[in-house]
Amino acid sequence: MTTSATDTDARRAPALRGQTLVVIGGSSGMGLETARHARAEGAEVVLVGRNRGRLEHAATEVGASGTAAFDATDPDALQRFFAGLPGPVGHVMVTGPGPYYAPLADLDHERTQRDWDAHMWLAIEVARLSVGRVQAGGTLLFMSGTGGRKRGPGLSLAAAGSAALPALIANLAVEVAPIRVNLIAAGFVDTPLSASLLGDDLETRRAHLRATLPIGRVVGPADIAALAVHIMTNTALTGATFDIDGGEQLVGA
After folding, report:
1. How many domains is the chain partitioned into structurally?
2. Is the pTM of this model over 0.85?
């Protein structure tokens, strides 16, 4: 007697059953899709974002157990949120705004500071506040990009962040062990944020990627979510950076 893959999947216990996932930046895009995948694996999810209306809509969509509307780069608000979490948390995922691109002559100090806070400092604060709140073997999962590995006008700040984040994540994994800390570095992902950044050029970008990427299609939020859930469930993974760009770096797309 043979057992089909479908039968096996139907009998498999949800991989995140009994665990809670907090998604900071969970009202749309990659964060929301990861929440959806985690719910399918049995997790309870708490969504965090700045826009209360979008957050509540997203929570209804995925069946979130809770929401919190605040600016995660506000240290006091972030501390209050972690202090108020009911019971231990299994995983925390942090997505953020896109990178700040500007030629050297146009770099704005205030925007540069906001970008630092939203990427580097937020990772440090989340790691610090997770000690004693996130279960041993649980995951802190952060997002970065592969675009900043290129060199050219306007990429100085993005390049610095792309180089620094993997080193930071690796060190945090040692400092907060046995909590695991990992980084997803994505190329172009077809999200509402990408649409807002590209505007009328969005469809041109999609068509170019379909024609040039080795995978023959555009990377979407579901691809990121599948990788994120795998990192949460594979307890051997920590201190690592996982590239997911459909081969974009290989062909210079």
Report:
1. 1
2. yes
